[in-house]
Protein backbone atom coordinates (compact mmCIF):
# COMPACT_ATOMS: atom_id res chain seq x y z
CA UNK A 1 0.00 0.00 0.00
CA UNK A 2 1.62 3.29 -1.07
CA UNK A 3 1.99 5.97 1.59
CA UNK A 4 0.53 8.70 -0.65
CA UNK A 5 -0.16 11.23 2.10
CA UNK A 6 2.73 10.44 4.47
CA UNK A 7 0.55 8.93 7.18
CA UNK A 8 2.71 5.84 7.66
CA UNK A 9 5.94 7.82 7.54
CA UNK A 10 4.72 10.33 10.11
CA UNK A 11 3.36 7.54 12.32
CA UNK A 12 6.79 5.91 12.29
CA UNK A 13 8.42 9.25 13.12
CA UNK A 14 6.02 9.80 16.00
CA UNK A 15 6.64 6.33 17.41
CA UNK A 16 10.41 6.64 17.04
CA UNK A 17 10.47 10.02 18.78
CA UNK A 18 8.24 8.69 21.54
CA UNK A 19 10.54 5.70 22.06
CA UNK A 20 13.56 8.00 22.17
CA UNK A 21 11.79 10.19 24.73
CA UNK A 22 11.18 7.11 26.87
CA UNK A 23 14.85 6.12 26.61
CA UNK A 24 15.94 9.60 27.64
CA UNK A 25 13.47 9.53 30.52
CA UNK A 26 15.30 6.48 31.84
CA UNK A 27 18.59 8.38 31.52
CA UNK A 28 17.06 11.39 33.30
CA UNK A 29 15.91 9.21 36.18
CA UNK A 30 19.35 7.61 36.44
CA UNK A 31 21.08 11.01 36.46
CA UNK A 32 18.69 12.25 39.15
CA UNK A 33 19.44 9.21 41.32
CA UNK A 34 23.18 9.65 40.82
CA UNK A 35 22.92 13.31 41.79
CA UNK A 36 20.93 12.43 44.90
CA UNK A 37 23.48 9.77 45.80
CA UNK A 38 26.34 12.27 45.49
CA UNK A 39 24.50 14.83 47.62
CA UNK A 40 23.79 12.26 50.34
CA UNK A 41 27.39 11.05 50.25
CA UNK A 42 28.85 14.53 50.67
CA UNK A 43 26.38 15.24 53.46
CA UNK A 44 27.55 12.05 55.18
CA UNK A 45 31.18 13.13 54.85
CA UNK A 46 30.23 16.54 56.22
CA UNK A 47 28.72 14.76 59.22
CA UNK A 48 31.98 12.79 59.57
CA UNK A 49 33.98 16.03 59.65
CA UNK A 50 31.63 17.59 62.20
CA UNK A 51 31.80 14.45 64.34
CA UNK A 52 35.60 14.61 64.31
CA UNK A 53 35.50 18.25 65.42
CA UNK A 54 33.01 17.54 68.19
CA UNK A 55 34.98 14.54 69.45
CA UNK A 56 38.08 16.71 69.70
CA UNK A 57 36.03 19.38 71.43
CA UNK A 58 34.69 16.84 73.94
CA UNK A 59 38.26 15.81 74.78
CA UNK A 60 39.35 19.42 75.16
CA UNK A 61 36.31 20.33 77.28
CA UNK A 62 36.92 17.29 79.50
CA UNK A 63 40.47 18.48 80.14
CA UNK A 64 39.17 21.96 80.90
CA UNK A 65 36.68 20.52 83.38
CA UNK A 66 39.40 18.49 85.09
CA UNK A 67 41.61 21.57 85.25
CA UNK A 68 38.80 23.63 86.75
CA UNK A 69 38.06 20.96 89.37
CA UNK A 70 41.74 20.91 90.37
CA UNK A 71 41.82 24.69 90.56
CA UNK A 72 38.76 24.55 92.80
CA UNK A 73 40.67 22.26 95.18
CA UNK A 74 43.34 24.92 95.53
CA UNK A 75 40.76 27.66 95.96
CA UNK A 76 41.46 29.48 92.69
CA UNK A 77 38.22 28.49 90.91
CA UNK A 78 34.59 28.94 91.86
CA UNK A 79 31.75 26.43 91.77
CA UNK A 80 30.24 28.37 88.90
CA UNK A 81 33.38 27.68 86.86
CA UNK A 82 32.87 23.95 87.33
CA UNK A 83 29.21 24.24 86.34
CA UNK A 84 30.15 26.20 83.22
CA UNK A 85 32.72 23.55 82.28
CA UNK A 86 30.21 20.73 82.82
CA UNK A 87 27.56 22.52 80.76
CA UNK A 88 30.01 23.10 77.94
CA UNK A 89 31.10 19.45 77.95
CA UNK A 90 27.59 17.97 77.99
CA UNK A 91 26.39 20.38 75.30
CA UNK A 92 29.19 19.21 73.01
CA UNK A 93 28.33 15.58 73.74
CA UNK A 94 24.69 16.22 72.86
CA UNK A 95 25.73 17.89 69.59
CA UNK A 96 27.92 14.89 68.78
CA UNK A 97 25.02 12.50 69.30
CA UNK A 98 22.79 14.63 67.05
CA UNK A 99 25.38 14.56 64.26
CA UNK A 100 25.74 10.79 64.64
CA UNK A 101 21.97 10.45 64.16
CA UNK A 102 22.14 12.55 60.99
CA UNK A 103 25.04 10.47 59.70
CA UNK A 104 23.16 7.25 60.36
CA UNK A 105 20.18 8.54 58.38
CA UNK A 106 22.40 9.56 55.46
CA UNK A 107 24.03 6.14 55.51
CA UNK A 108 20.61 4.49 55.36
CA UNK A 109 19.55 6.75 52.48
CA UNK A 110 22.69 5.83 50.53
CA UNK A 111 22.04 2.14 51.17
CA UNK A 112 18.54 2.41 49.71
CA UNK A 113 19.78 4.32 46.65
CA UNK A 114 22.30 1.59 45.80
CA UNK A 115 19.84 -1.21 46.53
CA UNK A 116 21.26 -2.37 49.87
CA UNK A 117 19.50 -3.23 53.11
CA UNK A 118 20.27 -0.31 55.49
CA UNK A 119 20.99 -2.59 58.45
CA UNK A 120 23.61 -4.45 56.40
CA UNK A 121 25.37 -1.43 54.90
CA UNK A 122 28.18 0.57 56.49
CA UNK A 123 30.48 3.33 55.30
CA UNK A 124 33.57 3.89 57.47
CA UNK A 125 34.21 7.51 58.49
CA UNK A 126 36.44 9.51 56.17
CA UNK A 127 37.50 13.16 56.08
CA UNK A 128 35.55 15.51 53.85
CA UNK A 129 38.62 16.80 52.08
CA UNK A 130 39.43 20.24 50.71
CA UNK A 131 39.46 19.82 46.93
CA UNK A 132 35.88 19.83 45.76
CA UNK A 133 35.39 19.79 41.96
CA UNK A 134 35.65 23.26 40.46
CA UNK A 135 34.25 24.10 37.02
CA UNK A 136 36.30 25.81 34.29
CA UNK A 137 36.11 29.56 33.86
CA UNK A 138 33.78 29.23 30.88
CA UNK A 139 31.15 26.56 30.30
CA UNK A 140 29.62 26.32 26.79
CA UNK A 141 25.85 26.27 26.83
CA UNK A 142 25.92 23.43 24.28
CA UNK A 143 26.65 21.11 27.21
CA UNK A 144 23.02 21.51 28.23
CA UNK A 145 22.07 19.43 25.19
CA UNK A 146 23.35 16.41 27.12
CA UNK A 147 20.70 16.82 29.78
CA UNK A 148 18.30 13.89 29.45
CA UNK A 149 15.29 15.94 30.55
CA UNK A 150 15.91 18.40 27.70
CA UNK A 151 16.23 15.48 25.29
CA UNK A 152 12.95 14.07 26.63
CA UNK A 153 11.14 17.37 26.03
CA UNK A 154 12.65 17.73 22.54
CA UNK A 155 11.67 14.19 21.53
CA UNK A 156 8.17 14.70 22.89
CA UNK A 157 7.84 17.82 20.73
CA UNK A 158 9.11 15.88 17.71
CA UNK A 159 6.58 13.12 18.33
CA UNK A 160 3.77 15.66 18.68
CA UNK A 161 4.87 17.32 15.43
CA UNK A 162 4.71 13.99 13.62
CA UNK A 163 1.25 13.36 15.05
CA UNK A 164 0.06 16.51 13.29
CA UNK A 165 1.13 14.96 10.00
CA UNK A 166 -0.77 11.79 10.86
CA UNK A 167 -3.91 13.80 11.63
CA UNK A 168 -3.59 15.77 8.38
CA UNK A 169 -3.17 12.60 6.32
CA UNK A 170 -6.45 11.27 7.74
CA UNK A 171 -8.33 13.81 5.56
CA UNK A 172 -7.30 11.99 2.38
CA UNK A 173 -8.55 8.63 1.00
CA UNK A 174 -6.50 5.56 1.71
CA UNK A 175 -5.73 4.15 -1.76
CA UNK A 176 -4.20 0.74 -2.34
CA UNK A 177 -2.79 -0.84 -5.53
CA UNK A 178 -4.90 -3.49 -7.27
CA UNK A 179 -3.77 -6.07 -9.82
CA UNK A 180 -6.99 -5.63 -11.86
CA UNK A 181 -7.50 -1.92 -12.18
CA UNK A 182 -4.32 -0.28 -10.93
CA UNK A 183 -6.00 1.56 -8.02
CA UNK A 184 -8.50 0.38 -5.47
CA UNK A 185 -10.02 1.85 -2.34
CA UNK A 186 -12.00 -0.14 0.17
CA UNK A 187 -14.49 2.69 0.56
CA UNK A 188 -14.59 3.61 -3.17
CA UNK A 189 -13.92 0.43 -5.09
CA UNK A 190 -15.48 2.08 -8.19
CA UNK A 191 -13.61 5.37 -7.90
CA UNK A 192 -12.17 5.04 -11.42
CA UNK A 193 -14.99 2.94 -12.88
CA UNK A 194 -17.09 3.66 -15.99
CA UNK A 195 -18.51 7.19 -16.43
CA UNK A 196 -22.11 5.98 -15.98
CA UNK A 197 -21.16 5.26 -12.32
CA UNK A 198 -20.19 8.85 -11.48
CA UNK A 199 -23.31 9.40 -9.34
CA UNK A 200 -22.29 6.51 -7.14
CA UNK A 201 -18.78 7.89 -6.93
CA UNK A 202 -20.07 11.20 -5.67
CA UNK A 203 -21.90 9.70 -2.73
CA UNK A 204 -18.92 7.52 -1.83
CA UNK A 205 -16.55 10.49 -1.88
CA UNK A 206 -18.81 12.46 0.40
CA UNK A 207 -19.10 9.80 3.06
CA UNK A 208 -15.51 9.79 4.29
CA UNK A 209 -15.28 13.56 4.14
CA UNK A 210 -18.17 13.99 6.54
CA UNK A 211 -17.50 12.56 9.99
CA UNK A 212 -19.17 15.20 12.19
CA UNK A 213 -15.85 17.01 12.56
CA UNK A 214 -13.96 14.06 14.08
CA UNK A 215 -10.83 14.37 11.95
CA UNK A 216 -10.80 18.14 12.27
CA UNK A 217 -11.02 17.75 16.04
CA UNK A 218 -8.18 15.22 15.95
CA UNK A 219 -6.06 17.67 13.96
CA UNK A 220 -6.81 20.49 16.39
CA UNK A 221 -5.94 18.18 19.26
CA UNK A 222 -2.64 17.21 17.62
CA UNK A 223 -1.74 20.87 17.08
CA UNK A 224 -2.65 21.74 20.65
CA UNK A 225 -0.55 18.82 21.87
CA UNK A 226 2.40 20.08 19.83
CA UNK A 227 2.03 23.61 21.21
CA UNK A 228 1.99 22.17 24.72
CA UNK A 229 5.14 20.11 24.18
CA UNK A 230 6.95 23.11 22.68
CA UNK A 231 5.99 25.23 25.70
CA UNK A 232 7.17 22.45 28.00
CA UNK A 233 10.43 22.18 26.04
CA UNK A 234 11.05 25.89 26.44
CA UNK A 235 10.35 25.73 30.17
CA UNK A 236 12.66 22.74 30.63
CA UNK A 237 15.48 24.59 28.86
CA UNK A 238 14.95 27.74 30.94
CA UNK A 239 14.92 25.68 34.13
CA UNK A 240 18.15 23.99 33.03
CA UNK A 241 19.83 27.38 32.59
CA UNK A 242 18.60 28.38 36.04
CA UNK A 243 19.99 25.18 37.58
CA UNK A 244 23.41 25.84 36.07
CA UNK A 245 23.48 29.51 37.05
CA UNK A 246 22.31 28.77 40.60
CA UNK A 247 25.04 26.22 41.22
CA UNK A 248 27.74 28.25 39.50
CA UNK A 249 26.85 31.18 41.74
CA UNK A 250 26.76 28.91 44.79
CA UNK A 251 30.24 27.55 44.06
CA UNK A 252 31.72 30.99 43.49
CA UNK A 253 30.15 32.49 46.61
CA UNK A 254 30.92 29.49 48.81
CA UNK A 255 34.57 29.53 47.71
CA UNK A 256 34.94 33.12 48.88
CA UNK A 257 32.98 32.44 52.06
CA UNK A 258 35.18 29.46 52.94
CA UNK A 259 38.31 31.63 52.72
CA UNK A 260 36.76 34.24 55.02
CA UNK A 261 35.58 31.58 57.47
CA UNK A 262 39.03 29.99 57.58
CA UNK A 263 40.51 33.34 58.59
CA UNK A 264 37.86 33.64 61.30
CA UNK A 265 38.73 30.16 62.62
CA UNK A 266 42.44 31.03 62.78
CA UNK A 267 41.65 34.18 64.74
CA UNK A 268 39.36 32.25 67.10
CA UNK A 269 42.08 29.63 67.68
CA UNK A 270 44.59 32.32 68.66
CA UNK A 271 42.00 33.85 70.98
CA UNK A 272 41.48 30.49 72.72
CA UNK A 273 45.22 30.12 73.34
CA UNK A 274 45.55 33.63 74.76
CA UNK A 275 42.42 33.34 76.91
CA UNK A 276 43.56 29.98 78.31
CA UNK A 277 46.90 31.50 79.26
CA UNK A 278 45.13 34.41 80.93
CA UNK A 279 42.84 32.05 82.83
CA UNK A 280 45.76 29.97 84.09
CA UNK A 281 47.44 33.15 85.27
CA UNK A 282 44.24 34.24 87.01
CA UNK A 283 43.61 37.42 85.00
CA UNK A 284 40.27 36.29 83.52
CA UNK A 285 37.50 34.04 84.80
CA UNK A 286 36.39 30.78 83.27
CA UNK A 287 33.45 32.35 81.45
CA UNK A 288 35.89 33.96 79.03
CA UNK A 289 37.43 30.57 78.33
CA UNK A 290 34.01 29.05 77.61
CA UNK A 291 33.07 31.91 75.31
CA UNK A 292 36.26 31.69 73.23
CA UNK A 293 36.20 27.87 73.03
CA UNK A 294 32.55 27.91 71.95
CA UNK A 295 33.30 30.55 69.31
CA UNK A 296 36.14 28.41 67.95
CA UNK A 297 34.00 25.27 67.73
CA UNK A 298 31.15 27.19 66.09
CA UNK A 299 33.55 28.63 63.52
CA UNK A 300 35.08 25.23 62.78
CA UNK A 301 31.67 23.63 62.30
CA UNK A 302 30.64 26.51 60.04
CA UNK A 303 33.73 26.01 57.88
CA UNK A 304 33.02 22.29 57.55
CA UNK A 305 29.39 23.02 56.67
CA UNK A 306 30.48 25.47 53.98
CA UNK A 307 32.88 22.97 52.46
CA UNK A 308 30.14 20.36 52.48
CA UNK A 309 27.80 22.76 50.71
CA UNK A 310 30.52 23.44 48.12
CA UNK A 311 30.81 19.72 47.40
CA UNK A 312 27.03 19.48 47.08
CA UNK A 313 26.92 22.50 44.75
CA UNK A 314 29.62 20.90 42.58
CA UNK A 315 27.65 17.64 42.38
CA UNK A 316 24.46 19.50 41.51
CA UNK A 317 26.27 21.55 38.85
CA UNK A 318 27.56 18.35 37.27
CA UNK A 319 24.00 17.02 37.20
CA UNK A 320 22.68 20.33 35.82
CA UNK A 321 25.13 20.02 32.91
CA UNK A 322 23.95 16.52 32.14
CA UNK A 323 26.87 14.70 33.79
CA UNK A 324 29.88 17.02 33.78
CA UNK A 325 31.72 19.72 31.88
CA UNK A 326 34.29 17.53 30.08
CA UNK A 327 32.00 16.08 27.40
CA UNK A 328 30.19 12.78 27.42
CA UNK A 329 27.63 10.64 25.70
CA UNK A 330 24.87 12.62 23.94
CA UNK A 331 21.24 11.82 24.65
CA UNK A 332 19.24 9.50 22.44
CA UNK A 333 18.12 11.56 19.47
CA UNK A 334 17.11 11.01 15.90
CA UNK A 335 19.98 11.42 13.46
CA UNK A 336 17.90 13.27 10.90
CA UNK A 337 16.10 16.49 11.57
CA UNK A 338 12.40 16.07 12.25
CA UNK A 339 9.85 18.00 10.27
CA UNK A 340 7.79 20.46 12.28
CA UNK A 341 4.29 21.50 11.34
Automatic annotation (TrEMBL):
GO cellular component terms listed in the entry, alphabetical order: membrane
Xref: Pfam families: OEP
SUPFAM superfamilies: Outer membrane efflux proteins (OEP) (SSF56954)
Gene Ontology molecular-function annotations: efflux transmembrane transporter activity
InterPro entries: MdtP/NodT-like, OMP_efflux
Name used for this protein in its record: Outer membrane protein OprM
Taxonomy of the source species: unclassified sequences, metagenomes, ecological metagenomes
Amino acid sequence: MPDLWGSVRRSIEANQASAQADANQVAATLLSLQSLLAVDYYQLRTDDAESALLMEAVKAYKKSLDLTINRKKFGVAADTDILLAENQLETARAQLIDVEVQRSQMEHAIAVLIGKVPSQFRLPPLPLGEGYPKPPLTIPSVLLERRPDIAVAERQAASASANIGVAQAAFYPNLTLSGNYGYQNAAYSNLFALPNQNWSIGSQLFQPLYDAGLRLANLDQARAGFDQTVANYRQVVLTAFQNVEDNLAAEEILTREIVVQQRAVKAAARTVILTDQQYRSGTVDYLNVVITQTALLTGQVSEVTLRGRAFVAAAQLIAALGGGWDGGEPPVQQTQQDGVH
